[in-house]
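[step 3/7] fold_predict: job queued, chain A
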Amino acid sequence: MSGERKPGQVFTRRRAEESQNTADLKTGEDQKPEEIRSDGTKKGKHQNSVFTYIAILFAVAFFLLLLSYFMQQRNTAQMIQGLQNSATAMENIDLLQRRNIELDKQVDTLTEKLNESETQVETLRDQVAGQEKEKELAKQQASALSQFWQLVKAYENGAYQTCRKIIAQMEESGLVPFLPETEGADAAGEFAKIQKAVKK
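[step 4/7] structure written:
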């Protein structure tokens, strides 16, 4: 009778197996949330890393764009400054050219006036030289006439020796050619007559 199982033993054994299965199920259920939580944590960390990398890329791109903008603004400012300097230089060149043209006109005017002044100076010099010649001629004529009248007076007084001295002085000083020859008073003719008379 030992091979037969009692009903109480069979029930107890089934209860033990069910309890074991229930414990196994609970153990399996407890393990699954941990695995899910572990996977979720890994996925969250990966997503955070991607977002950080994207944020860094955006920051770098923004910095490069900002740097490019400032460099372009600087180049534009330099270009504008260069154009302004060029415009100012062109204005200065145009102003200098106008002044140069005005100075050329002034130089031409002054040159004409200078030429006119030189012409006037030359004319005045000629006039002065002519006056000097006339003055010298008048002086020589006065000296010649003075000695001629002395000669006439000595000839009228019969002082022929004095006449010869006066004639010699006039010839030595070259005053004879300065004696006037006019219709009313031919001093040169009278001098020749007296000279001829006192030599006899």
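[step 5/7] annotate
The two ends are 229 Å apart (CA to CA).
The helical segments are 7-156, 160-173, 187-198.
exit 0
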